[in-house]
C-alpha cells in the first residue's frame, strides 16, 4: 500500500508530533483510545500469563499486581510515544520457569542521605582524590568517628549515609603517599560534605508500584555505592560494577612470559529496580590482567631474548608503574620506553650536564645495575619523567587493549562455564566474597538492608521458530530445529550470476594449492545455487612477502597488492578472490580498503593455510558462498509469509544502527564510525549501509538525517514507494543514554527530519510521515537464567532457542524484554535485552517479541538464528569493516611522539598557565589526528559498492 493512500492518518499523526514539541518522558500523546492494551498481529490483546506457568502464590500475586498497576497508569496518562509504558506482557509460547541471578533486596530504614564530597584546595588527579578519601577514613576526628560506620563512599565525590551528618561538616586531612611517613610539612586538605538529598523510602515505593514515574536513578546509584562498598575496598574494580582479584581466585595464563597476560575471574554486582522491590544482580565475569612484574628490566631482558629487544608496544600503553625509590609508593602511567639508555640520556642539573644514571647515584644513592638499558618515561607529552627500568614494578591491573587470536581462544575457554557451575559459584563464592552474607554484611545492617540468599524464579516462555525458511523452490522449504538448519541439497532463494571473476595470489608460488582452492571455492558456490561462467578466472600474483619486521605496517606489500588488483580490474570482474598465505592483521584491512574504498570491487579473502588444513573445506566454501551471494545482490533465504506478517501488513523498512569507537591502541583523536543499515524491499534481506566518521568516542550519530535520507532513497528506488513504517533497532546505547536518543535534536528528531527532507525531494508527495518505532538492543548486561526443570534445558544446560522473559526482573514501566533467539553452544548463554523507547506503531508485546525472534532467522551469513536481530548485527559488521579503512589510526603500533624535553622530571609543575598550554596542545594534536583520519577516509565507500552488502 502506498503511503499516500491514507493522507489524513499521516497528517493527523504529524500534527500530533509537532504540537507537543520537545516532549519529555511521561508526557501524553493521544493516538487513539486513551487506554487499553495494544492489538497483536500474532493473537489477542496481551494479557498476564495465566494457567500453565509453575509459580508460587506470592509471585503470582506480584505478577497480577504489576499488570493491574500498569493498566491503571496507562489509563491515567494515555498512550505515549516516548518511553512508552509497557502495553502488556507477552503470552505466546510454551511456559517455562527460569531461575535468574537476581536476589531480592529488602530495606527497613525509612531514610537514606546522599552528600557531595568536596576537597579544597581542589585536586583533579583521581589518584590523589582517592588517596585523600582513604586517609579520611583513617582520621581520628571525633565527629567523623561517630558517623564513620554509617557511611559508604564511591571513591570520587559521593557519600551515602544511613545517619544524618551534622551540617556543616568539615574535616582537615594531612596528605602523604602510601608508605611515606607523615610530617608537619605534609599538605593539608579540607574535606567537606554537602547534603544533596534526603531520600524517603515512600518515594521509592511509589515508583516501584507504578504510582509515580520519577527519576530514582540517584537513589539506585546510592544503594549501589552501599552494596559495593566492601568489594571496592578489598578488590580491583573494573568499570563501575565489576570486581576482581579476590584472594582465593587463581589466575589463568593467557600468554607466556613476564610481558604476557592472565585472566582473572570476578563478579559483577548491581542494584536493579523491578516491580514492587529492588533486586541485586550478581554475575560471574572474567577479564584480562597484566601479570605482576617484580622489575621492569627483567621483562625487557625477556623481550630482548625472545624477539627484537623491545617490550611489546601494547604493554607500554597506559599501564600503571609503581616506584618506591622516593621513600614511598608512587603509581604513575607508563608513557613510553625510551630508545636511549640511562647512561646516555642526559639533562642539565645545577649548571652541568649529567646522565640519568649519575642523577640516581647522586640524588638517591642508587647505583644502577643495568645503566645500559632504556628508561621508562612516566611523565607527559610536554614533560618527561625518566626512571630506570630496574626501579619500576608493575602490579596486577586490567589490560584494556585487544587480545590476539590465541589469547582470545584461551580467554573464552577459561570463561565458558555451564550455567549450573556459574550459579553455584555465585552462591558459594560470590555472595561471601562481596560481603552480601552474614556476618560480613555489617554495613548493610546499618542501612537496614537484607539480601535474599536464594536466586529468583521468573516466568518465561519458549517462542516457536518461523514455520519455514524458503529457498529456491517452495518444495525445499526448511523447518528449523533447535535454532538451526542444514543447507544440504538446497539452493539459494536467488542465486547471483558471475560472468567474470579474478584471483589474486599474495606472496606464494604454490600453484597446485592455489588451483585446488579456487576450483573448490567455485564448486562450493555453484552447489549453493550461484551461477558462474564456464571460463576460468583471471589469475594474478604478487611477489614473495618479506618478513613483517622488514615492513611492519605492510605498506609496500599493500601497495603491490593494490597495483595487482588494479591491473586485473580493467577486465571488469564481478569480484576478486584474494588468497593470503597466512593470517595477517595488516594485509586483510589493507585489501578491504583497496577494494571497498579505492577501486570499488567486491572482494573475498581466503587464508590458504587455514583452508588447506581444514578437515571440511566444503563447509568452509559453503559459508563463503553465503557471504558472496549476498554481496552480489542475491538472496540466500526468506521467511514464510506468516512469520513476516507483522512486517508486511504495511510497507516497512527495518533499520539497524551502531557506532564503533577507537580503543586504547588508537591514536588520540581518531574518529568514531557510525553505520546505518536498512532493508530496501519486503523480503527484508538486502540491507545496504551508510557509513560516516564523527567526533571521537561520541555515541550519538551526528549525520543521521543524511544517512537516513540515503536509506529512504534506496528503499524508494527498489520498492517504487516509500515505507509506511520505519522500525529502528539501535545497538550500542547504554540504559543511561535512552533518553538522549529521544532528546530534542538528537537521533529521534534527526530521523523525523529525514522524513521531511525525503518528502521535499519526492515530486507529487503531498505529505510523508511514516510511523516510527525505536528499539534499543543491549548485550552488555549480566542477566543470566537457567531452567528450573532439567527437561527444559538444552544439551549443555542452557535455556533453549526462543526463550523470552518480560516479568519479575524487567523494568517497572519500560516496554522491555529479554530474548534468546539462538542456541548457546558453549558457556552460559546471554539473551539480548530489547527496550522499546519510542513507538508510534502501537506494537503489542507479542508483536515485538515474536517478530524480533523470527527476524533473527534472517541473518544471511549463517544457517542459525543469531543472538542479535540481524539489522543491528549488520550495522555492527559494517562498523567493523569500516575500521579497516582507518587501520593505521585505530590500531597504531607506533609509540607516542617523544617530545622535545630532555630534562629529568619529577618536580612540581609551573602553574595553571603551563597546564592549560599542555591541555591546548593535546587538543590540537587530537584535532590533527582527526583531520588526517578524515582525509584518509575521503569519500568513504566507492560509489560502485554503496548500495550493496559489500561489508558482509
Report a brief summary of the structure.
Among the domains are: 3-91, no CATH class; 106-290 and 404-454, no CATH class; 292-395, Beta Complex (paz domain); 498-634, Rossmann fold. It has 25 helices and 39 strands. The chain starts with 6 loop residues before the first helix and ends in a 15-residue tail after the last helix.
Notes on the protein architecture:
It is a single chain. The chain is α+β, with helices and mostly antiparallel strands. Among the domains are: 3-91, no CATH class; 106-290 and 404-454, no CATH class; 292-395, paz domain (Beta Complex); 498-634, Rossmann fold (3-Layer(aba) Sandwich), CATH 3.40.50.2300. Strand 10 and strand 11 (261-274) form a beta hairpin. Helix 19 crosses helix 21. The radius of gyration is 30 Å and the shape is globular. Mean pLDDT is 88; it is low at 1-37, 44-55 and 895-911.
